Amino acid sequence: MASRWRDGPRGRPARLFGGTRGERTRRRDAASGEGDGASESLRDLPRWMRLYFYGMHGVALDVVLSSLRGLLNHRDPKLVGFSSPYLCIMHALSHLALEKIYSQKRCFRARPVVFHLVFYPSVYIGLQILIGTVRTWTQLAVHYVLALYYAQVFHRGLSRLQYHPLCAPDPLREEPRTKAGGRSGGSARRLPGLVRFLFFGMHGFLDEVLFTSVFNLVEKSDRGLSGHTSLWSFLMYGSCGFVVDRLYLHLHFSRGWGTWRRLPIYVCFIYTWELSWGLVLRQFDACSWDYSHYPHNFLGLITPLYLPGWVCLSLYQDVLSNVLLRIKCTKDAGEVKEKNGEADKEHEMTLSALDALRS
Q1: What is the pTM of this model?
Q2: Rounded distance, CA 150 to CA 357, Å?
Q3: 7-23 burial by CB neighbour count: b if 16+ within 10 A, else e?
Q4: Long-range contacts of 248-251 (CB under 8 A, 24+ apart)
Q5: pLDDT tens digits in sequence order for the chain, 359 residues long
Q6: Phi and psi of 52, rounded to 5°?
Q7: Which sequence spans correspond to the domains of the chain?
């Protein structure tokens, strides 16, 4: 009996605790969807992409805050807002640092309120003071609210985005559905239409701020590189970019049309969209552009002088669409990594206990 107790269970403890180390690893990879194919195909967003998005998002917030301030002070329906390439760069770098701060929230696991309401907002406001965007008590209060938004919404949403670095999947192929009607393997899916709309809207802000800042530098020798746009531009660029993105997916993947065959359709739609929005906004004295002083303009709302710019933006739109095809929306990657880390520690403790029993 004693020999049976010594010899028999010695070959079984690994089974009792979930199998050998290799078997546990294989099962954990299969359950988490991080096996050979998934681990090589999906990964965190590259640093350059995060910097790009941080700068664009920061410019969008600058425009929104300054346009709302102008509306409250001057009741201007044009909703003109301001930012600059300098602020874009500072937003990108500061939020790259805040990304590291947000990753430390696991150290406050027992006190999450302290992290979200005190620690992170304090670091965020300190960086904004260094940049020069916080100078009054009102701005301090506004940026405290923004810090809560970043800690509770922004970083959490960004952590769900993963990047496919090898090749863009076919957007026309339907994702397989389960019997319940949901997506199978729901760990990763394409970006929703609302997210793409928000992306193109913010990118429109960035485009106009960069263009007007360069224009002011050349025409007015403004070395501060101050650029401006209108809050209405978010809706214009967001909807226009979304439609052009749909056109690209249909004409390129369904029809097989090349770039130069798609380009006239893009440009015609852009001019039609700009004219339509201009006519509507003029009824409310909210149109922020006037091309009456340019030659060959039509109603002061569109001009062929900007044709090279629209052509370049149309070509760049295809690049953005291809990049967005490589981005997948997944579960909270931070929480998954944290759970995997805890599971690894538990397995290591189990193995140590088994080694102690064997000895």
Answers
A1: 0.78
A2: 49
A3: eeeeeeebeeeeeeeee
A4: 248/317, 248/318, 248/321, 249/171, 249/172, 249/321
A5: 444 444 444 444 444 344 444 554 444 444 444 444 444 466 888 999 999 999 999 999 999 999 999 888 888 899 999 999 999 999 999 999 999 999 888 888 888 888 989 999 999 999 989 888 888 898 899 999 999 999 889 998 888 898 887 655 566 565 544 444 444 445 678 889 999 999 999 999 999 999 999 988 888 887 778 899 999 999 999 999 999 999 999 999 998 999 999 999 999 999 999 999 999 999 999 999 999 998 889 999 999 999 999 999 999 999 999 999 999 888 754 544 544 454 455 556 666 666 666 66
A6: -60, -45
A7: 40-169, 189-325
* Best CA proximity match to 247, nearest among 266, 271, 219: 266
261 φ/ψ angles, rounded to the nearest 5 degrees: -80, -30
CA distances from residue 309 to 51, 215, 271 in whole angstroms, order as listed: 24, 13, 12
DSSP-assigned letters across all residues of 301-325: TB-GGGHHHHHHHHHHHHHHHHHHH
Q: Are 226 and 84 in contact (CB under 8 A)?
A: yes
> Residue for token digits 């409310």?
284
